[in-house]
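#struct-pred
JK: can someone run the complex with beta-D-fucopyranose? inputs below
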Amino acid sequence: MVKSNGVGFLWGSATSAYQVEGGNIWSDWHFWEKQRGLEQCGQAVRHYEKFAEDFTLAKQLGQNAHRFSMEWARIETAPGQISQSEIEHYRQVIKTLKSLNLKICLTLHHFTLPQWLANQGGWENNQAIEYFKRYVQLVVKEFGSDIDLWVTINEPLVLATEGYLYGHWPPQIKSYRRMIKVVNNLAQAHQEAYKIIHEALPQARVGLAHNFFSLEPYRRWFILDEWATIRADNFWNKWLMKLTTGSHDFIGVNYYFHQRVLFSFNWSRGFVAFADPKKLNKEISSLGWEVYPSGLGEVLLTIWQRYHLPLYVTENGIDAQSEAQRASFITRSVAAVKQAQKQGAEVKGYFYWSLLDNFEWDKGYQPKFGLIEVDRKTFVRTPRESARVYAEICSDKI
Ligand code: FCB
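RT: done, structure tokens with the ligand placed:
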């Protein structure tokens, strides 16, 4: 794999606090699940206690980096009230990663909010930006110099659309106007965090993780499908990048979706609809998402050509139907990364989603994204066959 600026390529996997830690009774998701009678996250995969075992496995599996998130709700249990024991917990997490010589990619905010902030209107309230700044200042003060890569906010647009447009996630609002407000506030929060981190650590590398779509018109001959594809690209790929211009040292690319776009009206999606890959007889994952690894290469190249910034694949993964499918997905995705590099894109790392099976938000525990299988009763960890395939890729010192 091509190495840039003398810094080796980062090979890792990603997790997020709420999805793996367990026992999080302070976040908005916890309250929401209980209120709605949904499958509860509960113990998650007990990563909160087992992080050392998990990181050791990652290391044994050939990885040299790890992406994880801190849970704001744990750290700041009430406005301005900081839990020293949680700070101490994350200190141990970071120490363990360092002792294993794993590079650290830290996400400051991955979908969940402290419930006290959700009670105040969450990201719709401009005050959330001020609270976020204070939390970022704290993390920078406590851990700043230990972090190799900073991801301020994970997938702001996914958070905003799922929570405020489609109404699938808390706070389950369906309003175009309110979604736009949330996107603007998240973009501003990112920019403020970018400044705070750089003021304290001028050399820091700071970005966000954006969920980029690979898009193509469903009917290539139909001009309105072309037009709908341009609209989808503007909304899903370009809009957030425009709002946050000038505050990226790198771009974090989360890639899951290839969409075939067709022109058709729907109140929440405007004139854009996506064809169902199942009906088109395409390869799909267990969740029914189209498996299209070459789209990762296309996305990387497009983003490189648009922004000329270093790129990290901060997430790419599959809820696989079989281990053969997951292994093939990983191999093909890495080939797509290499292809994009060959064509000039400066790609500096790849984080598979996820190190472990975990709690997949509104879909609960059914989806299996992990390189490592976790028994839901005993919490025993077992690396899957695909983890070994990925390990071979990671240790390939090209
Ligand atoms: C991404 C999220 C991540 C996980 C994967 C499957 O959009 O960032 O937490 O849920 O999807």
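RT: quick notes.
The radius of gyration is 20 Å.
The first helix runs from residue 17 to 20.
JK: thanks, will look after standup
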